Amino acid sequence: MYNSRIAGLGYYVPENVVTNDDLSQLMDTNDAWIQERTGIKERRHVISGEDTTTTMGVKAAKIAIDRAGIDKDDIDFIVFATLSPDYYFPGPGVLVQRDLGIKTVGALDVRNQCSGFVYAISVADQYIKSGMYKNVLVIGSELHSHGLDMTTRGRAVSVIFGDGAGAAILTREVDTSKGILSTHLHSEGQHAEELSLIAPGMGKRWVTDIIEDNDANDESYYPYMNGQFVFKNAVVRFSEVIMEGLKKNGLSPDDIGLLVPHQANLRISQFIQKKFGLRDDQVYNNIMKYGNTTAASIPIALTEAWEAGKVNDGDLVVLAAFGSGFTWGSVIIRW
């Protein structure tokens, strides 16, 4: 029997900082409006031609591999979580395998949006627990900025999202009291359209339809979010899935050393913190600097927390996410 543990972490964000004031030059918004509703002060956007979802993932992966103290050829499997792949197909997992020069291992792409990294960690964890693989590279990477409606029409969504990538190396841990203790995954597809990007898609509007209509007012290829509805569901599901993980392991909120929530909205994180009675030093948030980087948000935040000395041996670390699908999940880790 094995557990899996996180042996190395890394993240990468583009150097290009986009402030709320910068966005106010493009749309009818302002710094106070954005901060009040989301907690976001700035985010990173790639400069066209300098980064892609894959290249950001590769940069984060190289750091994680180095910190894990392994060689790239020690990696047995790749799991890549994103909603913004370089190509419609193939997915970025195989591009990472190519760009890192890794031998012909399997590469799996995960499409679970904001909960993508939690789902990807769960997949990697099960492969290691089963004994199938020893070292799995898990990446969450997003390039949102090229696909956002940067006008007043799209401001409710476009001010939220940023670009970036995070990565983790999961490896075998023979001490089953340490590492990833459990993962918990859920979905509720009846609300799929409440946070979605409808086109291009085979079921609605494909690329040929969009080109044929040439309609500048077609909003189907921009992200849509029913913000209040998403918020109400998020705070419930976050609480449920965190408690599910704690109870599974005979733990309580008092045992949490650090909660790293998906960085969807600072108000959601603050609501969960208050509900569980956690101190500021027990919750790590960085949405103020990076916005919502979807599948990349948890690995970026976890890496920053680890670099800042907020994650130490023996700590109970909880990862939790909720997002489009709806999908949500948690990971309970004894560091």
List the strand order in the largest sheet: 1-7-6-4-5
Protein structure class: alpha/beta
The CATH homologous superfamily of the largest domain is termed: Thiolase/Chalcone synthase
Q: What would you say the CATH architecture of the largest domain is?
A: 3-Layer(aba) Sandwich
What gross morphology would you assign?
A: globular
Give the uncertain stretches in residue-range form.
Answer: none
CATH class of the largest domain: Alpha Beta
- The proportion of strand residues reads 15-25%
> Termini, distance in Å?
18 Å
CATH topology assignment of the largest domain: Peroxisomal Thiolase, Chain A, domain 1
- How do the SSEs run, as a string of H and E? EEHHEHEHEHEHEEEHEHEHHHEE
Number of domains: 2
User: What summary fits the major beta sheet?
Assistant: 5 strands, mixed
Number of strands: 13
Helix content: 25-40%
What is the radius of gyration? 19 Å
Output the number of helix runs. 11
Q: Kindly report the average pLDDT value.
A: 94
